[in-house]
Amino acid sequence: MIKSQNAKTLTLVRIKEISVNIICSLGILLFLYAAVNKLVDYEKFQVQLGLSPILFPFSDIIAWFIPIVELIIALLLLIPRVTLIGLYAFYTLMVVFTIYIFIILNYSENIPCSCGGILEEMGWKTHLIFNIVFVIMALAGIIMKTTIIGKKAIK
């Protein structure tokens, strides 16, 4: 009975590890894609930020800050020893982006798009849903990674 229970626990831990790896991989792809897109077309990104009713006073700083943060988060998600920190950063940045989109959609007459590539083709409501899905994924990754660490500490 104990061996059976241990096997189930190990299987569950392995499923969580695979799930966390998938979530991290999706986060890496998202942040690398977004950062590279912003940096490749930096002037367009900076101009679009300048059109934002909320961000325009800080558009010069934000235009560099966001892609750098996205690249750092992608790197954190890639390195196993700091994956949990990366997941927290992933979650936090996606929550910030989601709140920004919600505010723009509900309280702004001017709705500029400062996204690039495929994300630019999405409507704002679709982008909001997309972000919410990634917020949930990041949160699930945090919960699973935390329980994996807890299970390994018990061994």
TrEMBL record:
Any one GO cellular component localisation term in the record: membrane
GO biological process: methylamine metabolic process
Domain Methylamine utilisation protein MauE: 20-143
Membrane topology: Multi-pass membrane protein
Intracellular or extracellular location(s): Membrane
Alphabetic keyword roster: Membrane, Transmembrane, Transmembrane helix
InterPro entries hit by this protein: Methylamine_util_MauE
Transmembrane segments: 18-36, 56-78, 85-108, 128-148
Designated name of the protein: Methylamine utilization protein MauE
